[in-house]
């Protein structure tokens, strides 16, 4: 499966409640015994707002005309993050989770994790 097939997919929880749309994928690097490094999908970020993330405004270090980064950072707080292990099944343009929406973590905005 390609990452492009996941971006934009609808996400529903175990009860069938709409969670949002996938707008970011988080990978982790894993070192293999032969010295090679591979990427593994770790977390998926979804929510109602995606454009700001794609433009980089979900991150604290992004700058621009003052109201734009502030607006997108506020909207990005609605993003939810789930582990790839929380996926029950995949269908074309649909991800069904094995957990409830209420159990998903809110995505911390970079630079504001300790606040």
Walkthrough of the structure:
The chain has three helices and seven strands; from the N terminus they run αβββααββββ. It is of the alpha+beta class. It has a seven-stranded mixed β-sheet. A hairpin with a 5-residue loop joins strand 2 and strand 3. The radius of gyration is 15 Å and the shape is globular. Mean pLDDT is 78; it is low at 109-115.
Keywords for this entry:
disordered C terminus, SH3 type barrels, seven-stranded mixed beta sheet, alpha+beta, 16% helix, 7 strands
CA-CA gap between termini: 37 Å
User: What is the CATH superfamily label?
Assistant: PRC-barrel domain
Helix content: 10-25%
Radius of gyration of CA atoms, rounded to a whole number: 15 Å
Q: Sketch the topology as an H/E string, one letter per element.
A: HEEEHHEEEE
CATH A-level architecture:
Roll
The main sheet comes to: 7 strands, mixed
Number of domains: 1
SS element count, helices? 3
Write down the overall mean pLDDT.
78
CATH topological fold name = SH3 type barrels
In which order are the strands of the major sheet placed?
A: 5-6-1-2-3-4-7
Strand content: 35-45%
Oligomer: single chain
- Helix/strand structural class: alpha+beta
How does the overall form come out from the CA principal axes?
Answer: globular
Poorly predicted residue ranges: 109-115
Short description:
The protein is an alpha+beta fold. The chain is built from three helices and seven strands; from the N terminus they run αβββααββββ. It has a single domain, classed as PRC-barrel domain (SH3 type barrels, Roll).
